[in-house]
Write a structure and sequence with these properties.
The chain has helices at residues 42-47, 53-70, 97-107, 163-166, 172-178, 203-213, 229-236, 248-260; strands at residues 8-12, 26-31, 71-81, 84-88, 91-95, 110-119, 144-152, 182-183, 192-193, 196-197, 219-222, 240-245. It is an alpha/beta fold. α2 (53-70) crosses α3 and α6 (203-213) crosses α7 (229-236). The structure holds S-adenosylmethionine (SAM).
Length: 272
């Protein structure tokens, strides 16, 4: 039986300052930030004062710090992120977003857990960068993104026969597929939004993460909500969702969508 739908609360604001969210009230933070050193996100970072790789990482670190504050003990942080390949100052190199995010979150007190490699079939064709068929100057294709996983402190505890937990069971087949380290069965999401590419991840990915790391009745937060994929998935699965989005037009579209879906718990907070 499908659980009753959850509700969605929305805030227009900054993932680094979740004023509307109290300490230790969120069970799962599932999100995908703007990726450092990916040109699509340069302007968004620049408008927030982050103009180089360390600055971009520092911005994201502020969001992970805030995620730690709002999570309950035992709550999970799931971060979908990809590395970047880019030439700057004449140097073409990898910018290891996943590795730096792992280190930053661990420094903030999160416990790193085994992560997932999300192999995106759509990234594969025509991606070869190099010079024909001779070594050594070609590059391996970046066709995986990462679902980094962290826990705040020790394991979450439940009373015996907790109804929300029992209602959140997955099947053996789901467990075998979801808890393997490489996910090859999920396609990328459609990227066209009103203002160009959205950076959205697929609904199936959001649903999977929500079902793996939260139970019915929990609160799921996406502090970089974008088109709201996490929020709609969480609400459909009987979790209550909180979404935070900094960009005005993106936020307006998000709020309209939440209203259309009849999911808003309260009116969105006014822009700050
Ligand atoms: C990769 S997209 C998220 C896409 C989302 N997972 C989806 O499926 O649509 C990142 C989002 O974070 C927003 N953003 C950037 N900086 C932010 C900040 N400081 N606080 C909150 N949101 C921010 C961007 O405007 C963008 O919508």
């Amino acid at each position: 039986m499908r659980p009753a739908r959850g509700t969605v609360r929305l805030f227009r604001g900054d993932a680094r300052r979740l004023d509307g969210v109290r300490d230790a009230t969120v069970h799962l933070v599932a999100t995908s930030p703007p990726y450092p050193m990916i040109p699509q996100w340069d302007e968004v970072f620049r408008l927030q004062g982050a103009v180089d790789y360390p600055g971009m990482l520092a911005l994201l670190e502020g969001a992970w710090r805030e995620a730690h504050r709002v999570l309950v003990p035992g709550g999970i942080l799931a971060v979908v992120i990809g590395d970047a390949l880019r030439r700057t100052d004449g140097e073409f190199r990898l910018w290891p977003n996943h590795a730096d995010t792992l280190v930053a979150a661990a420094r903030l007190g999160f416990r790193p857990l085994p992560y997932v490699l999300w192999k995106k079939p759509t990234n594969k064709p025509n991606a070869f960068l190099g010079s024909g068929f001779v070594p050594p100057n070609a590059y391996v294709t970046l066709d995986c993104e990462f679902v980094l996983l962290f826990r705040k402190g020790l394991l979450r505890r439940f009373p015996p026969h907790d109804p929300g937990r029992l209602a959140s069971r997955f099947t053996r087949a789901e467990r075998d597929l979801w808890f393997s380290q490489v996910w090859e069965d999920l396609r990328g999401a459609r990227q066209a939004g009103r203002r160009g590419r959205t950076g959205a991840f697929p609904t199936a990915l959001a649903e999977r993460v929500v079902r793996m790391f939260s139970v019915v009745g929990d609160t799921v937060l996406d502090p970089f909500a974008g088109t709201g994929t996490t929020l709609w998935a969480a609400a459909a699965l009987g979790r209550n969702a909180i979404g935070v989005e900094w960009d005005g037009p993106t936020f307006a579209t998000l709020a309209e969508e939440a209203r259309t879906r009849g999911l808003l718990a309260t009116d969105p907070s006014p822009p700050r």
